[in-house]
Design goal:
It is built from two helices and four strands. The chain has 105 residues and is an alpha+beta fold. It has one domain (2-97). Helix 1 (2-14) runs parallel beside helix 2.
């Protein structure tokens, strides 16, 4: 039970943030990829739900958004606060902009 809660905390709270991965060739930066993991609210299966989404931006084409999971109710307040502290207001997201299938909760 405690290990499950800690695993959820790591996934939905601790792992939020932004990072840039530089692609180097012989020590010279050739390109970079930006990653952002944060909470959004999306209307899914008939109601607004807090979800964790990982966005990848390569600098060409549209950003790719991947559904990570539904934020567990017991961590929702904490996860939202983390997003607000890192990125500002928790935004609404059109689920149609997420790549792949989003399973029912």
């Amino acid at each position: 039970m405690l290990s499950d809660l800690l695993r959820k905390y790591d996934t939905f709270v601790k792992n939020q943030g932004a990072e840039t991965l530089e692609i180097k060739n012989r020590g010279i930066t050739e390109d970079s990829v930006d990653y952002e993991t944060r909470v959004y609210v999306a209307n899914l299966y008939g109601k607004p739900r807090a979800i964790l989404v990982r966005t990848t931006e390569t600098g060409w084409g549209e950003p790719s958004r991947r559904f990570v999971g539904y934020v567990p109710p017991e961590l929702e307040s904490m996860a939202r606060k983390k997003t607000e502290s890192l990125f500002g207001k928790v935004e609404e997201m059109d689920p149609g902009t997420i790549t792949g299938h989003i399973p029912a909760p």
